[in-house]
Amino acid sequence: MSETGIQNVPIEREAAPRGLGSTLVLALGTFAVGTDAYVVAGFLPAMAHSLHVTESTAGQSATAFAIAYAVLSPVLATALARMPRRALLVGALTVLALANLASALAPDFGALIVTRVVAASGAAAFTPNAGAVAASLVAPAQRGRALAVVVGGLTVATALGVPLGNLAGKMLDWRAALGLVAVLCAVCAAGVRAAMPALPGGPRVPLRERLAALRRPGVVAVLPLTTLGLAAGYGLYAFAVPVMRALGAGAPAETWLLFLYGAGAVAGTLVSGAMVDRHGPIPVQAVGFAVLTVTLAVSAWAAGAGTHWPPLTASLMAAWGAATWFQTPAQQVRLINAAPRQTAVVVGLNSSALYAGIGLGTALGGALLAVGPSVALAVCAGLALMCLPYLGVTRRHR
């Protein structure tokens, strides 16, 4: 959420300041991107049934999206650097719209995977450039708020996009839900085309130069924690519906429990950012990983013991969202401190590491779900616990 890679591409020349209102259409675009990335969690069982695959297999569509995003983000940032920004944003959203339409019409699981990879390419091209364009559209004193508006689209997608996808999947079906995401992307593309001024591309930064930050000891030491932490916290989110059912939640409760996860994610990100400013990143991460470990461990116990108590399930969902996304602001601060002259590059690398963690965690979660939700939750709790000694070993990189 807060770690999006939005500063990945600098703008060569700036337009005349237009005010924060001009960035709202970009926030709508990031909402569409975020909804597309996470929405599968809301209707996974129905999609699996329709495509004649297991829920574990269907969840790998989220793995394909995340891994493709992680790999393509730095590549597309380099390849498309000189492309005029408005054309790039419109093109990326158009690709995303067409890919979602193709996903909605996919005749089988293989075709769905292909369309999810194409969708990831659109998302990887749009998200970093949306932040860079937003910063160029406002006065220097408003740039922080402009970036917050754009990031807010992704945050709201976590809080609202997945629950709404779940609701749409119940009222219509999963194909209609993806079709609605396609329509949203198309509307955003039209809005960007109408509202954004013509902006030139930026200077081309070679891929080798983007990856040069990996030679810095602090970056190399800190970056793996992003992948490990997101694999632990996000590995089962694509399978949130089966997990909730293992905790005793029926179909009527799914939507509001997903809302609780999203609300926890938003709160966790905001509180974490404030606490990092006050206490520094290391204590904040220690608290976040400890809470994540306890939350997943209690969830594993409740699922294994057959404990079905709605207040406990609700609390665990909110804590799961908060603890998963509690870590990202602190990670970003640590990486920027490790390479202060390469801020845009390390933020982009962290974005790729984040999606790599989501992809690897979802692949592992899908494999373990076939054994049982309690086992999958216990393994994810173990991964979260592993983050604490790793944090201790790398604590000098603040």
TrEMBL record:
SUPFAM superfamilies: MFS general substrate transporter (SSF103473). Keywords: Cell membrane, Membrane, Transmembrane, Transmembrane helix. Its main location: membrane. It comes from the Bacteria. It is a multi-pass membrane protein. The chain crosses the membrane at residues 20-41, 61-80, 87-106, 118-139, 146-164, 176-196, 217-236, 256-276, 283-303, 309-326, 347-369, 375-393. Residues 22-398 form the Major facilitator superfamily (MFS) profile domain. It is found in: Cell membrane. PANTHER family: PURINE EFFLUX PUMP PBUE. This is MFS transporter.
